[in-house]
Amino acid sequence: MNILILTNGEYGDYTFCQKQKHYDYILCADNGMKHAKKLGICPDEILGDFDSCNENDLEFFKRQNVKITKAPCEKDETDTELALDTAISLGAVQIDLWGGIGSRMDHSLANIHLMYKALQKGVEVTLYSDRHIIRLLDKELELVGGKGDLVSLIPFTPVVKGVKTTSLAYGLEDGEFHIGKPYGVSNYMLEETAKVKIEEGVLIVIQARD
Length: 210
Fold this sequence. Notes:
It holds the Pfam family TPK_B1_binding. By secondary structure, this protein is α/β, with parallel strands linked by helices. It folds into 2 domains: 2-130, 3-Layer(aba) Sandwich (Rossmann fold); 137-208, Sandwich (Jelly Rolls), CATH 2.60.120. The chain is 21% helix and 33% strand. It has 4 helices and 14 strands. The protein has helices at residues 32-39, 55-63, 79-89, 105-120, and strands spanning 2-6, 25-29, 45-48, 67-70, 94-98, 124-128, 132-137, 140-144, 150-155, 159-166, 175-178, 187-188, 193-197, 203-208. The longest helix has 16 residues, at 105-120.
């Protein structure tokens, strides 16, 4: 089951949203509804504490008979985590999370940690923003992009072992990463596809656009 979550991060000119694929269910985390409205997307559900949303947007989607799930303002989860938990409970195998990276560093880091929560449950999450595609890797990953696209490999766990890359400019064969030594920053793709494989640990894989 493929599920889309729209959050209230940075979308830029919405270019990255134009490659929208089929989703079995679409969720908005709180003011992610603002972006859904601009994109002409009618979600299946909007959930959150609604402390940051525009009431007119909320009423707009209520009139479309969208499911509204209200959470208390004082809670232990972010609205994005509530959306992620809902997606997982619905049987998600793949979750695309739009706008999960932005000017709020705390939310950006929190969303990367939510990817790990999903990974532990066997669910793959991809974060998309106007300048980034971010994934967590515990086995093998194929990257699709263009020649020269920036790719950074950063350890999420204290140690990542057995790193092998294909079609990246600075190749690795049985490489090893340690937290505190980010030597995998600003690599780049030599072809339109590249591969990264690891044997142990979890790696943050970031495709970035300058």
